[in-house]
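COMPLEX REQUEST
Ligand: fe (ii) ion
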Amino acid sequence: MTRLFEPTGCKVDLSTGAMANATGSYQKRFRDLDGLYADAAAFEAMRATWGERIVYEVCEFRPTELSGDLIFGITSMQPGKVGDEYFMTRGHIHKQADRPEIYYGQKGHGLMLMESPEGEVRIVTVDAQTVCYVPPFWIHRSINVGDDELVMLFCYPADSGQDYEIIARSGGMRSRVVAGDGGWKEVDNPDWRPRDAELISALYGQRSRTVPA
Ligand SMILES: O=P(O)(O)OC[C@H]1O[C@H](O)[C@H](O)[C@@H](O)[C@@H]1O
Ligand SMILES: [Fe+2]
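STATUS: Structure written out below.
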């Protein structure tokens, strides 16, 4: 008999963001996130109290990394700000840039900040019971704009991979999300630099879709 991957159920604990039967997890502590935020002085001032604390945690189920398979898991992020900028993930584009992703809000108030290779920006709210579709080719980063922990399920093709350098090379994402009057607001990142035509076409050149007959 062909030995298939064993079907698996993964119970999620919303209070901790832990997922049963996870195959892996990682934590990003405050000190790991140096350089992510606009206000370097505010970051340094928080380092003494926040340095070792976990800002976000990813708990995942990764059956294989073969095309056609899926990786899924839970991201949970603490509430907080560095200066006026909300806590966020590092953000990435998929190494196979044409691979999409789905997020499903479980708890809290989040945003998905997305940027196309040419620098178009989109923001989708990810509250509890909101599904967010990140289409192929969009750089994506999640942001906790609430006062509570943000907990989201994610799911993406197992052969996607992550490229984190794309954001650093452009001087950050084009927009930042900061506290505004009674909520969040999007502001321009003055350090952002457009990607050159060569990089843009290399990204789009990765499209590997087979068109059904
Ligand atoms: O990988 P980061 O940008 O730090 O974000 C943390 C995690 O966010 C989401 O949950 C993605 O699906 C994960 O692939 C990612 O690892
Ligand atoms: Fe992703």
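REMARKS: The first strand starts at residue 12 and ends at 13. DSSP finds three helices and 15 strands in the chain.
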